[in-house]
Input
Amino acid sequence: MTDVLVADVLVVGAGPTGLALAVDLARRGVDAVVVERAEGLFPGSRGKGIQPRTMEVFDDLGVVDAIRAAGGPYPVGMIWQDGRRVGEHRMFDPAEESERAGASPYGAEPWMVPQWRTQEILFARLTELGGRVEFEREVVGLEQDEDGVTVAFTAGEPVRARYVVAADGGRSTIRRALGIGMTGETVDPNPILVADVRITGLDRDNWHVFPPQADGTGFLAICPLAGTEDFQLVAQFPDGDHPDLSLEGIRKVAAARSHLAPEDLTEVRWASDFRPRAALADSFRSGRVFLAGDAAHVHSPAGGQGLNTSVQDAYNLGWKLGAVLRGGVAESLLATYEEERRPIAGQMLGISTGVHRGEIRRGEATRQLALGYRDSSLAAETRPAPGPVHAGDRAPDGTVDGVRLFDTFRGPHWTLLTVGTATALPPLSVPTVRLSSYEAYGTGVFLVRPDGYVGWAGASAEGLREYAATMGSSLG
Output
């Protein structure tokens, strides 16, 4: 009889979603195994924009310094016509004063890091924490019962886990095995080629944009990939065309749509093609199996929402799995994953589609700092007149009275914060911070979740003990 390995959580897919989740679980002492069907990590740039909110998540996961060192800011867009520069194009709207008051330390624009490099950084962090990834492990089926899930592979022994998370992409084998459908639409019927290339004779100070031509030839965009010697080349084709992914094929596209000579494009390091679509899984859960990332929602790449929404799925699910598996919290907590994340994913799908079609600008809507869970069953707002921050909102950063809040929040724990009140507090086994005042919060008592959102808010601590009791030993 074949041996069955046992784990708390089996994560299927070693993309940004699966790796971020595995990092979060590892630091919580949860035994998680990541399996990946490919021979190694994904080699392309695809999702290259990391939004400010995701930078905050990476801060908490212990990788933000490496992410900052690996990338850089987005360059200004440069529009070309007939071999001449005809004007700059600002890709992102500036932050409004209301956004700056949100107190994010990572600015108002995304940070550019090629997806392959982001995955390498998360993989290194997972290894540092003692986690592991098993490559060349392709799932062929699963069975679940009251106690766990058994997953079978094309090769190697099955894995038995208490929970499974499908982070295996838009064509998710796990989602299909569960029979969960996806509802969506084609955002654009025109195929798009994306490739990581080496180019000579083109500066790295601009994101070079060559608009569609009068004969119907689609656009070409060439963006220098921060922290590398590569450029990301993106080209649109008419519906029905099949882009040639070879070096010669991509050279022809670049030469036909720009002033570049074929030989200026010296190497293709990775290439793919796709048709932009938007789709949302009908459910994010079936029994002990959860869907996250592209397995749960598929975006147009416009606006940089796919990778970011996916990493934040992992961040939401990680602390909840940890609380149930290690903190003695009732399993019903896991129902709040779909409750909180599916509406957010739907909202982000609308934004990415709007950006693709030119209906929404990259700016406040795409930074993801204003997202929250006010309508969640975990959000307990007990004040008759809440201030700027409500239960369910993202907890802002800031340095007040010599205390930097994100330094206090960092780690797999809850945090108790009071602002402008000396009210007595119950004895909870969590870090506690008292601020004399901070305009970004207003006045009150705030219990901040492990993922940086306010769970409970009150004018005093009345009712806090009862809320904390529902969160098990992690709150004392």
Observations:
- The first strand starts at residue 5 and ends at 12.
- The CA atoms of residues 224 and 231 lie 4 Å apart.
- The chain has a mean pLDDT of 93.
- The longest helix spans residues 335-356.
